[in-house]
Amino acid sequence: MTDSRGLIRQFISLYGGSPDGVRVFFAPGRVNLIGEHIDYCGGNVLPAALTLGISAAARITRARNIRMGSVNMPGSPTVNLDSPIEFDEARGWGNYPAGVMRMLADRGTALLSCDILFAGDLPDGAGLSSSAAIEVLTAVMMIRLAGYDAKFTPRDIALLSQKAENSFTGVNCGIMDQYASAMGRKDHAILLDTRAVSSEYVPFRFPGYTLVIMNSHKRRGLADSKYNERRAECEAALKSIRSMRRIADLVMATSDEAEAIPDPVLRKRARHAVTEQSRVERAVECLTRGDADGFGWLLNKSHESLRDDYEVTGHELDILTDAARNSNGCAGSRMTGAGFGGCAISLVRTDALDGFRVHTAREYHAATELNAEFYTAAADDGAREITL
Questions:
Q1: From the centroid of its chain, how far is CA 296?
Q2: What is the per-residue pLDDT for 219?
Q3: What is the gyration radius of the CA atoms in the chain, in angstroms?
Q4: Residue-wise over 41-73: b if at least 16 C-beta within 10 A, else e?
Q5: CATH number at residue 48
Q6: Which of 164, 23, 144, 158 is nearest to 97 (CA)?
Q7: What are the tens digits of pLDDT across the range 187-207?
Q8: Does the residue 334 lie in any domain?
Q9: How far apart are CA 315 and CA 344, in angstroms?
Q10: How much is the pLDDT for 125?
């Protein structure tokens, strides 16, 4: 989380005035612990909100516009409150918060004129869902500034933010990212039923172990096109299984039904969905009893399935997770997110962290000439206003 008082100083430097009336808000990024690429197959997933995320300082003004700035991104996008809020290519990154403002306005929420300065400590392009964080952050901020707190639950905010990304910015994302950012709880993961959009909290505490996020620094150039391709393949696999038995979603298939699909590619995609759903269920059991070794084993198996059956890992993530697993003190490692670059996660013995970083970074660089970056993070609460 960005230092709040430092952010206020930057806000004053940009917009002038005094700190009076400046309020600070925060929304976490998310990491999906396990349950990858099954959120659009009706599956259960296990994300956690992070201590890393995006903060914003905001102050109500008398103007009829909303001015935005960012410590991390160029540009000064604006929203004119006397005109309908529409997507504007020239607004760039500002379309993410603008889309949420549009959804709020459509629901009758009064948008107050204000100045906003965003700042984040999520690694750029790493797949920790900065877009969902800024959407959820904007929703919480605008709702609280206008005094509409009682009208929106965190679940409402997640759904509204997802709708903004789907319909305003045109990204066909699922609900997981926004849900985790809005609904996070400290020291807990979220077991999210993506079909019902309901959840329960699962303790995420392994004494003596630390969650390490590893940024491969391989840009996810294929992620978007392959994401659409995999979704289409899963729909085709479901259609094939429905010729045998009527099921609502791919994760409801049995292993035998997945293996009976004639097309070898579709068979592999279905196999991943079915086995990954099972791994989520077993992961909940491991978290409940604090079984770090069992959870680590499931991380390894998840990565192998994503590599062999779903084919979304890529050379760099395979090298990175192999190097991590071969490091002393690592219980398990897997890619997280869309794949083809971005991040992987490892569960590492806390007393072995320094050696883990050195060994993993060295092996990864030797094989790829890329420099991995390491972050330690814990499960955190969802989006909120920060009390100064």
A1: 20
A2: 80
A3: 21
A4: bbbbbbbbbbbbbbbbbbbebeeeebbbbbbeb
A5: 3.30.230.10
A6: 164
A7: 999 999 999 999 999 999 999
A8: no
A9: 13
A10: 63
Choose among 224, 140, 135, 142: nearest CA to 177: 135
Active-site residue list:
177
By C-alpha distance, which of 93, 98, 96, 62 is closest to 83?
A: 98
Tens-place pLDDT, residues 125-146: 666 788 999 999 999 999 999 9
Distance CA 369, CA 307 (A): 21
The tally of CA atoms less than 13 A away on the side-chain side of residue 335 is 32
* Domain ranges, residue 168: 4-204
Number of domain units in the chain: 1
Contact (Cβ atoms closer than 8 angstroms) between residue 196 and residue 155:
no
Give which of 264, 182, 273, 169 is closest to 224, Cα–Cα: 169
What is the arithmetic mean of pLDDT over 275-294?
98
User: Which residues, 6+ apart, have CB-to-CB distance to 287 below 8 Å?
Assistant: 189, 202, 203, 204, 295
Residue for token digits 């490091």? 327
Instruction: Write down the pLDDT at residue 174.
Output: 84
φ, ψ at 14 (rounded to 5°): -80, -45
Look up the pTM and report it.
Answer: 0.94
Torsion of CA 331, 337, 342, 348, to 10 degrees: -10
pLDDT value at residue 388: 85
